[in-house]
Amino acid sequence: MTNLNDYFDPVSIESPDYNCLASQAGFPHNISIHTENSPLKNLDKYKIAILGVPDGRNSHNIGTHKGPDAIRGQLYRLAKIPGKSRIIDLGNMKRGTTFNDTIAGLTDIIAFLVSENIFPVVVGGSSALTLSFDRAFSEIRERYTLITVDPRIDYSNEKREPDSFNFLNSLVHNHKSTFDHYINVGYQTYLNDHQVLNRFLKRGSELVRIGDVRKAIYLTEPLFRDSDIAVFDISAVRQSDAPGTINPSPNGFYGEEICLLARYAGISDNLKLFGMFEVNPELDIRSQTSGLAAQILWFFLEGFSQKQFETPVLGDSNSGRFVRYHVKVTDLTDDLIFVKSSLTDRWWMEFPAGEGKKIYIACSYEDYMKANRNEVPERWLHGAERLKS
């Protein structure tokens, strides 16, 4: 791929009837925008690339192809992102003749951006577009953990063409896929097939019910910190806050909660790709859902601007940045080793990986306290099981 201009249409949105912010304080003020008079070039100076994918095919949520422009229109009304985040809006990807053509094009784009160390923020469109995320990471041979904020586990025991309700089938059953681990935040039990839930639990997936998330939402931060791809489905938000989707539920996250989860994704050391899907402007009320989706993106980008890259230096005992705690638990032969950042107060667990190497898995202060009570933290059990396999 040499010229991204061949893949994208320039940004084109209508000016709002009013602005609450001065132009220099608005979101577009400190980002670059692909327009007809400003073609794409010199992408290597950017850290984040926003791209719309107006393709709602392979989804029952007819109308999601209008989502990217509706969300962008609301995003540009918000305040600029603090700091000097180097962001470019690539515009909307040109839709393929078939849905598979769109998937192929998006796969090429994501693989290129990730390889160039540019973070793609994909705004859909149908969540079936997640297939391109898998293909891109498989193409560059990078094993990945996928975290979804979704009331449903998008997997079906029935064999049918991949769509927004079963795209996980293509990841799980494709022997060429580098899909390694799955995490779901906020599933609602009554919306899911219990056989599907049991299938994913047996394969070591981490599934967190919405009730458990809302009891202590901050405990989801380590889950995002250890993930490579994050996919947000707007139907994870309750209908009163986000009516503009085909399957709204009376229950779900409040707007403030989903924005906090997006910020956790933004500050993640490991995350390399973010997707927001299933906003349907045709079902929306006074742009409420597209407005919330824009705020979700804003909080993600704000978190990204505050990112502290600590994971690469966790093993550096001379940095003076981390404190190690050894905890003896009766049922285990070796001590549990916890690592705390003196800068951010974040925690990790340290595992031996052979040949003197170590692997770190994100955890919380609560996991450390549980070990001090002579209990084995569930996060440690998940990590140990994954390392065995």
- Output the CATH class name of the largest domain: Alpha Beta
**Overall pLDDT level:** 93
**If helices are DSSP runs of H or I spanning 4 or more residues, what is the number of helices?**
11
Radius of gyration: 21 Å
Derived structural class: alpha/beta
User: What is the molecular shape?
Assistant: globular
Name of the CATH homologous superfamily of the largest domain: Ureohydrolase domain
Note the main sheet.
10 strands, mixed
Number of strands: 14
Helix content: 25-40%
Instruction: Could you tell me the CATH topology label of the largest domain.
Output: Arginase, Chain A
Distance between the termini: 36 Å
What would CATH call the architecture of the largest domain?
Answer: 3-Layer(aba) Sandwich
Spans where pLDDT lies below 50 across 5 or more residues: none
What is the succession of H and E elements? EEEHEHEHEHEHEHHEHEHEEEEHH
Tally the structural domains. 2
Share of residues in strands: 15-25%
Secondary structure blueprint with pairings:
Elements (H helix, E strand, L loop, with lengths): L7 E2 L22 E2 L14 E6 L13 H9 L11 E7 L5 H17 L3 E6 L5 H10 L4 E6 L17 H6 L6 E9 L6 H9 L3 E4 H6 L5 H5 L3 E5 L21 H13 L5 E5 L10 H18 L16 E6 L8 E6 L5 E6 L5 E6 L1 H8 L5 H11 L1
Question: What does this 3D model show about the protein?
Answer:
The protein has 11 helices and 14 strands. It is of the alpha/beta class. The chain folds into 2 domains: 302 residues, Arginase, Chain A (3-Layer(aba) Sandwich); 76 residues, no CATH class. Strands 1, 2, 3, 4, 5, 6, 7, 8, 9 and 10 form a 10-stranded mixed sheet that branches. Helix 5 links the parallel strand 7 and strand 8. The radius of gyration is 21 Å and the shape is globular. The mean pLDDT is 93.
